[in-house]
Amino acid sequence: MPVVILIMGLPGSGKTTLSIELMKLMDDTEWFNADQVRAAYNDWDFSFDGRVRQARRMHDYAKSSKAKYCILDFVCPLKEMREMINPDVLVWIDTDNQSTYSDTNQIFMKPLEFTFRITERNAPKWSKKIFNYLLKKEKK
Fold it and tell me: Which residue(s) pair with 37 in the sheet?
């Protein structure tokens, strides 16, 4: 199983931008964006069950990845979803206090444990920090 990097946060916080910047630095990496994964299925919605189903799919994609690293880029609003994914690295993008989706704002639980908490919009800087962290972890 690959090293799983969960990049999570509210819609519009910069998850995809950071994922793309991080991908530029890394070899042997697969990236799964929730919007793209959701578009591949006809049973998606934003109900509680729909969100759990999406988290399970993201987990399954990561679990079946043959790459060295796997980036999961999605809101992942609930603690239970993050526990299901069980990432090796959790990156919380905390640049927005609210999204334009009130239902997401209502259920979003801020993570209490994370590897990185990003509070500024600077994907090039943070992608390098995350990449360097992964390199150091790899050498151990």
Answer: none
Q: Residue 3's CB: how many other CB atoms inside 10 A?
A: 19
* Among 30, 29, 54, 52, residue whose Cα is nearest residue 40: 54
Give residue 74's domain range: 3-139
Q: What is the CATH number of the domain that holds 121?
A: 3.40.50.300
Q: Tell me the C-alpha to C-alpha distance, in Å, between residue 98 and each of 14, 38, 95, 111.
A: 13, 22, 9, 15
Residue 122 and residue 108: Cα distance in Å, rounded?
23
5, 69 contact by CB (below 8 A): yes
Looking at the structure of the chain, the number of domains it has is: 1
Full-model pTM: 0.92
Q: At residue 89, does pLDDT exceed 80?
A: yes
Amino acid 115: pLDDT? 98
Mean pLDDT of the chain: 91
